[in-house]
Design a protein that fits this description.
- The chain is mainly alpha-helical.
- The protein is about 60% helix and about 5% strand.
- A hairpin with a 2-residue loop joins strand 1 and strand 2.
- The longest helix is centred in the first third of the chain and has 37 residues, at about 110-145.
- It is elongated, with a radius of gyration of 30 Å.
- It starts with 14 loop residues before the first helix and ends with a helix.
């Protein structure tokens, strides 16, 4: 059992205890960050005269060799080591001898693991941001292509008013844009370097923490060593942000599932993102959308779990904090996978524009516009509301849409109606008349699309 400690102990740790305590099974995934942090650390130690330049070069060559061998598969990270730090240091000493024993000078595993986790999280936030941007690019493409694709807008899952597919996709664009902004906020807030904080009280060595932070791309060093080794706020923030991403994906998935149903048939999901039934040959199931919806709870669980773990921990470092890694790793993997798959599904999805427009008509989504027509012809709104309500009841009995009524049928309910009612309640008019910024009218949508395109281009 390869450990970085032992002088204080007179007998070996029980095997069961050792395995329970060890983290190598999951923290091995940030071997690259551990080596990157160690290279910066020894570079700083040499600058400060704590190591010689020769020792620095030996250590860096050894660390780069370990990284290369792990990546090429000639060196395996095995469970004989307690954690990734033990693996790297033990292999370094095995390769370069006594110089390798100086790697840990002025450093504790507490600030080392805090650094590794920050470096890893920072890298993953960058990847999540890239996936979110890809999602936004697909949404923007759909918005550009569908400014005149009419469909029902819903409240309470009831058809409410006509909108366009561009407008509907634009709502999700706003959601995922906010998700990107949250990721950037987290990155900025967490981008301070804990290296040099030691176990909790710094060190007597004359470290240049600002230089080490600069080498690793941080904005500067953290300002309290106790907080540095026990801060997991940034992980809680990331889990919260990913939970929001997953909530948005889940809402979108729910709509895709509804739109894919036989009752709606608004979309056809590509075969690559669907499955069939083992017994019913007619089925084409939206499994990817359903799995994304289901995996949302998994990410929520990680957030709740880490909040619960952290709520009773006194300063500074405690072993409980080791529980952050598996939770965060799994949540990141889940969110990245869901973003990639959903984006692929959305990119290949086909929309039935005719079916969507017919659904809007037969859902009486133009009823409000029929009432507005009467108001514009001098009828008080409350009376107009009642008149259109009677029109809808008549259409339901006849199983027709408002657009299908004859002028005589309109006039039988109110003599105010004239031939221009058909133009007033057409899907095109209903949508095009709504041109305040943020509304579905084509002119308004074109302004929004230009703004969203400028946002993505600037990024």
């Amino acid at each position: 059992m390869a450990q970085l400690w032992g002088g204080r102990f007179t007998k070996e740790t029980d095997k069961l205890v050792y395995n329970f305590n060890a983290s190598i099974s999951f923290d091995k995934r940030f071997y690259e960050q551990d080596i990157r942090g160690s290279i910066a650390h020894v570079t700083m130690l040499a600058k400060q005269g704590i190591l010689t330049d020769e020792e620095k070069e030996q250590i860096i060559d050894g660390l780069e060799g370990i990284k290369r061998d792990v990546e090429e598969g000639t060196l395996e990270i095995t469970y004989e080591y307690e954690d990734i730090h033990s693996f790297v240091e033990a292999n370094l000493i095995g390769r370069i001898g006594d110089a390798g024993k100086k790697l840990h000078t002025g450093r504790s595993r507490n600030d080392q693991v805090a650094l590794d986790m920050k470096l890893y999280t920072r890298d993953e936030i960058t990847e999540l941001d890239g996936l979110l941007k890809e999602m936004l690019e697909i949404l923007l493409k759909l918005m550009k292509e569908n400014t005149e694709t009419y469909m029902p807008g819903f409240t309470h899952l009831q058809k409410a008013q006509p909108i366009t597919l561009a407008h509907h996709m634009g709502a999700y664009f706003e959601m995922f844009k906010r998700d990107r902004q949250r990721m950037k906020d987290i990155y900025k807030r967490m981008n301070l370097c804990p290296l040099g904080s030691g176990a909790l009280a710094g060190t007597t060595y004359p470290l240049d923490r600002a230089y080490a932070a600069e080498l690793l791309g941080f904005d500067g060093p953290t300002l309290n060593s106790m907080d540095s080794v026990s801060d997991r706020d940034y992980l809680i923030e990331l889990l919260s942000a990913m939970s929001t991403v997953m909530m948005h994906l889940s809402r979108f998935s729910e709509e895709v599932i509804i739109w894919n149903s036989n009752e709606y048939k608004f979309v056809e999901i590509d075969d690559a993102y669907s499955t069939g039934s083992s017994i019913m040959p007619q089925k084409k199931n939206p499994d990817i959308a359903e799995l994304v919806r289901g995996k949302t709870g998994r990410v929520y669980g990680a957030l709740t779990s880490l909040l619960t773990t952290m709520k009773g921990i006194p300063l500074a470092y405690n072993k409980d904090m080791q529980e952050d890694k598996e939770l965060v790793f799994d949540a990141i993997d889940t969110t990245k996978g869901c973003l990639a798959l959903f984006t692929g599904m959305l990119k290949t999805m086909k929309f039935d524009a005719g079916r969507m427009e017919e659904s809007a008509k037969h859902g009486f989504t133009n009823a409000t516009d029929a009432a507005d027509y009467l108001v514009n012809h001098g009828v008080p709104f409350r009376d107009a509301h009642g008149i259109v309500g009677r029109l809808v009841l008549y259409c339901l009995e006849k199983k027709i849409a408002l657009d299908d009524m004859s002028l005589e049928e309109f006039k039988a309910v109110s003599p105010v109606f004239e031939d221009d009612i058909y133009e007033a309640i057409s899907m095109k008019t209903c949508v095009e008349m709504r041109n305040t910024i943020g509304a579905p009218g084509r002119k308004a949508m074109e302004k929004v699309i230009a703004a969203e395109e400028a946002y993505l281009t600037a990024e």
